[in-house]
Amino acid sequence: METVLSVIMSTYNRENMVLETIESVLNQTFRDFEFIIIDDNSTDNTSSIIKNIKDSRIKLIQNTHNCGCTINYRLAHNISKGKYIAHTDDDDISFPDRFEKQINFMENNPQIALSGTFIETFGENRRPDWVFYTDPKIIDFVCNLYNPICHSSIIYRKTFMDENSINYDPLKKCAQDYDFYKQILLKGGLIGNIDEILVKYRMHKNRLTDIKETQDIQIYNAEITRKELLHRYFNDTETEDFLKLIKGFPYNEYDKITVTEGINKLGEKIPNCDTIIKQLKEDIINNRFTF
């Protein structure tokens, strides 16, 4: 009998958070899933906490050395048996009906290869969330500018990924999710979001995106991914000129006028996107991208 869902998670030194995350997965209204957890050679009590949880759905893999989350995601994808694969970060919380609603969405929208959900941020250094859009056409357009999908909320079709040789790139230590979405878009896949908050996204000082070393790697990898997406429309020189126009957008200080100019230039390359451009301009004018 086919496994409907595989849930994958990589964890490292999260003894103060991981139990809450795991319980939020195990207590889902949808219960037919395997839960693949890869402990990345934690040096605290993370591994012991997981071992003490008695649930046959958990498949714990313990690394003998620290591999990094990207390699763990890749392995978990490869061994997953589910028709769908859902991801959770080891410090976030899934709402009880998250999987039920996501599977229903994917079943009712067979053209969608991957989808996420709206999120609610909480914790230290809290900022507004960045997940606004649901329409696959808008998401495809916006992915040329930034990553509009929360990784901890995604679910995707394994068959689409396997048939198109899509997996997490082991060379991407950070921004591996953005690169994953890029691969889907370049293969013609559609990405959507459910317009409902189904994940609580924890903000804290020990996130990879907030540590200086990994933050720099993330920025670098995200820029590479952005360029690869833009090469669908621009040559190398045009891409560099475009990136100068949208510099800082949307997370840092940016110039609304030049960003709007960049959006117009991109719109000239993509047919039937007038409505998308209008929406983005309205959101910029109304400071929706103020983080």
Description:
With 291 residues, this protein is of the alpha/beta class. The protein has a domain at 3-205: Spore Coat Polysaccharide Biosynthesis Protein SpsA, Chain A, CATH 3.90.550.10. The chain has helices at 18-26, 46-51, 69-79, 98-108, 136-142, 158-163, 176-186, 212-230, 236-245, 256-267, 274-285, and strands at residues 3-11, 33-39, 58-62, 82-87, 93-94, 112-123, 155-157, 190-203. It has an eight-stranded mixed beta sheet with strand order 3-2-1-4-7-6-8-5. Helix 1 (18-26) links the parallel strand 1 and strand 2 (33-39). Helix 7 runs parallel beside helix 8. The longest helix has 19 residues, at 212-230. The radius of gyration is 19 Å and the shape is globular. The model has no long low-confidence stretch (mean pLDDT 94).
